[in-house]
Design a protein that fits this description.
339 residues, alpha+beta, six-stranded mixed beta sheet, 6 helices, globular
Amino acid sequence: MAFTTSVTTTTTPPYTLPYLTSNYCGDDSPSSTIEAKIRKNLRTFHINLSTGNYASNGPLNALDIHWNYDGVLLISRAAAIAALGQNAEVSLRGVQAVDIYNVVDGNVGATLYRLQGKQSGPFAGLPLQPEPGGYFNALGVERFVFNNEGEVRDLVTVDQVGRMQAQMKGEETEVPEAGTPAVFELPENPQTEVEYRALLRVNMAALHMNVNTGNASANANLAVEDVEVDQSGEVKRGREAFVKLAAGEDAGLGAFPDKVFHDAYVLVDGRQGAVEYVWQGVQKEKYNGTEVKEGAMVRMRGMLFLEFDKEGLVRKVVGVYDERVVADQLQGKGGYLYP
């Protein structure tokens, strides 16, 4: 049965960007052999990490993997496993990474996960914090590109490092309890028709284009009335919150009025989707306590994970980025690697 819907967007002209449909490594079947292997491998990474078997992730990566690990650029399988081991054995020993969503679209995958545990050594420049500090419970996102063998050849990781450090220092008075995250169950996500997935792809691509063209309010038409909006752990409901999540501030407004979003990947899997984006802008107003510094350029990467109803409207969205990246750039503490 062909999929039909009354949902429309106000974007002009229609989206024909080639990268939105170039992810496939075969036919359009999510059950193809290579995609099945990708799904299995994607699911395995954080299970290995959480059970202390992080080294087993080595064979799942290509020998020449390119990894942007929270702004640190790594090349080669050996370098990737060494960096992972630094956190798993030194900084965050016993860390648990629990997948919330796994999205696979052809040879590209994306994961939203929760990181929780206790600091065990210096972490991203932060010395080991004394008791009762050190605990963390935050979100992270990753985007994977796989080769024809199902190995990861390109990976981007964005963890909420700034929030994790604030929690470790006791600046968040109530850190969610780590508990014992031994259950690795993902929500059901039955596959859907090609026409339906094409609609989701167009609607997701419209989100940031509407912002770039000063028409962010049109994004309200793409979500259900009581849409659940989770911005890095703060949950709200309603279309107003949804518009704010996608936009931050509309074009021409806020601390970065010339801010432009670029969608690197738009992925669709069943009734779920993921968008990896980068935005760039020059500071024009005070931002979170940081005064305006003439010509201060900021570039930041983040991801959105979305669930849709049967009509193709967003019913839940989770947005994740690392606020530390913005603050560091405004304070001249470093740049942001791209890609």
